[in-house]
Amino acid sequence: MAFPPLVEPLAELTDSERTRTARHRVLAGFGDVAQRRLAAAHVAVVGAGGLGSPAVLALAAAGVGTLTVIDDDLVEASNLQRQVMHRVADVGAAKVESAVRIAADLSPTTVVRPVQAVLTSANARELLAGAHVVVDGTDTFETREAVAAACEDLRVPLVWGVVQEFHAQATVFWSAPPAGAEPVHLADLYPPDAGREAPTCAQVGVLGALCLQVGALLATETIKLITGVGDPLLGRVLVIDALRARADEVPLRPAEVRSVSSAAPAAGESAAPQDVAAGSSDATAGSQSVPEPARPAPIPQLTPAEALAAQRAGAVLLDVREPFETARGVIPGSTLLPLGDVLAEPRRVEASRVVVVCQVGMRAQRAAAALRAAGIEASVLAGGMDAWSRDAAGATVRA
Fold first, then answer.
1. What CATH number does the domain located at 15-277 have?
2. Per residue in 39-66, pLDDT tens?
3. What is the DSSP letter of 79?
4. Where exactly are the structural domains of the chain?
5. In CATH terms, is domain 301-390 a member of 3.30.565.10?
6. Per DSSP, what are the bridge partners of residue 115?
7. Contact 219, 58 (CB under 8 A)
8. Of 39, 94, 257, 322, which one has the fewest beta carbons inside 10 Å?
9. For the sheet containing 66-70, what is the strand order?
């Protein structure tokens, strides 16, 4: 459903701004009024990284009047693969300063308020106060929870996205939506503390081009909310699988509504939101109202000591990290085969019992699932090499 616009329009655009935004103003149903609403809007973007960078670019180019950009970090060379707001010359400088430069280059009328600070539950409400919409482009769940709690208190919509490896999710949370719409909160998708153990992009990687796609999507949702044009993602989660060029939509209802619904999913629903939160990319909108199929048995999670015991008993330790990672050290006696090769042909692993190893455990889960589907008994070293480094049961890691 379309919502009323969040922002009253500016009285008038400058001549130069009318020229710069001419392609917006001729859009059917958008026009000059919507453009003036953007000019009067204040958007807070939390995080100037993989998602925040393209979102800031798109929002500044769109003519948003004020952008508050919050990030405490400095630009690193490894950021440049996906954080397109920064340049090689920015390495070592504050990320928020890139937002100031880029907005001036794109939209001279946009005012950027750079805030180089760590957003916490203690200061989130103060940092986000005054924004019509908040965009969350952060990469830790603790920060995401602080942002969501502040938006709930401030009663402002939160445009939210997450990207990891080749997969992404995007949605809108809002504790006080217009009449006729149900409030939806972060906790309805991720129960409290559910994502605390999720690996970082530094550990499992992220496709840079997908960050641009999702950051632009977050900017589009923000523009729709400000102007009242279109149907925002409130109550819906867009799930993107870049490898299959597939985008699916999963309904998201408040937890208290789900708790009293029938066990079978309603027509048009698919995987439960918690399944989406756990990284499922197979949920599809439009599935029929049928009972859920039986879930496969959980993949055994072994401690370092248990993994060593399994190896002594004849199991193969299969390290599915990339060569540049295994060059830094492996568990003695491991077989090395990158995840992509395992997924392409699981039967290349000539063993009846396998313990799969990666850096933190996420890639190992995917490999183990593929191996089990191929009839191979597979378990996972819980916590991966990070856990091994902390507690290798007296063993040494071969460098």
1. 3.40.50.720
2. 999 999 999 999 999 999 999 999 999 9
3. G
4. 15-277, 301-390
5. no
6. 70
7. yes
8. 257
9. 111-115, 66-70, 42-46, 133-136, 158-164, 167-173, 236-241, 246-251
